[in-house]
Amino acid sequence: MAPTPSPLHPTHHRLRTKTVVLLVLMVLFGSAGDVLLSKGMKQIGAVNDWSPAALARVGFATFTSATVWLGILGLMLFFICYLLVLSWADYSFVLPASAASYVLVPVLGFTTLGEFVSPLRWAGIALIALGVALVGLTPPSTTGVHSLAAPPAAEEGK
Amino acid sequence: MIRTAVFLAVVVFASTGGEIAVTHAMKKIGEVHDFSPRAILGVIGRAFRQGWMWFGFALMAVSFFALLALLSWENVSFVIPATALSYAVGALGAKFLLGERVSWMRWAGVLLVCLGVALVWAG
């Protein structure tokens, strides 16, 4: 059995880099998808009339809206990045790290749209940022799945 | 009250259970090295042939519908902070079901994120 590489081994640098790149893409695609979907649905307007004809109109408007489709595309790209990163990184690393979107969206809203963010919200954003930073200091993978020497069959028994 | 607690538990446990199943499926596929579009499509194709992937999707769907139901009688400002619990439940599941090593530093990060998400939505 091959010895486990030390945390300073180049394998770890490479692993950390690709984990961070995919997490950044996840946060960007996920946030863009959410924002576009929400913008698209607001353009269509609130659903107040629940008659079949009105619902059919809303459904048609939804599926012919370019903004909605861009939002869906964003969420699909988010999910692909999520699957790819989970092929090597810990779930307990990816889950809290992806909460960075809770930081990005209000900060973008504040800086680009001048949206109001309450002090309590800023406190929450600061806690999330600190939490994500702490998780980011831990090794992205602790289960050894990434070891290049091990054939996939050797991992099955776990 | 009991109904709210039951639905909240379903939302939290089904979503984390679903994500853990999806993680398990991806770990069985193994680390992706080739990021060309063709290779990525191949990985997705293999992922969708994993039973655990579909089990994960089923649990996520259960969680989504339970969330919709919950939102029909509770406020978003209560529901979303409460679902922040899934960060802690997810870390527990990762430790005990996936065998990940959750160090004290990772726990501290997870708990801060939990608290932060609850505050962002309560604020």
Write the SSE topology:
The complex is a heterodimer of chains A (158) and B (123).
Chain A: H1 10-44, H2 52-63, H3 66-86, H4 91-97, H5 101-113, H6 119-136
Helix pairs in contact in A: 1-3
Chain B: H1 2-29, H2 37-47, H3 51-71, H4 76-83, H5 85-96, H6 104-122
Helix pairs in contact in B: 1-3, 1-5, 4-6, 5-6
Written account of the structure:
- The complex is a heterodimer of chains A (158) and B (123).
- Helices cover 67% and strands 0% of the residues of chain A.
- Chain A is mainly α and 158 residues long.
- Chain A has one domain (15-141).
- The model of chain B has no long low-confidence stretch (mean pLDDT 93).
- Chain B has one domain.
- With 123 residues, chain B is mainly alpha-helical.
Derived structural class of chain A: mainly alpha
- Oligomeric state of the chains present here: heterodimer
Could you tell me how far the N terminus lies from the C terminus of chain B, measured between alpha carbons in angstroms?
A: 23 Å
What fraction strand of chain B? under 5%
Give the DSSP E fraction of chain A (strand runs of 2 or more residues): under 5%
Q: Span from first to last CA of chain A?
A: 16 Å
- Work out the helicity level of chain B: over 70%
The overall strand count of chain B is 0
Low-confidence stretches of chain A: 147-158
Order of helices and strands of chain B: HHHHHH
List keywords for this structure.
heterodimer, A: 158 residues, mainly alpha, 6 helices, 67% helix, globular, disordered C terminus, B: 123 residues, 80% helix
What's a concise summary of this model?
The complex is a heterodimer of chains A (158) and B (123). Chain A is mainly alpha-helical.
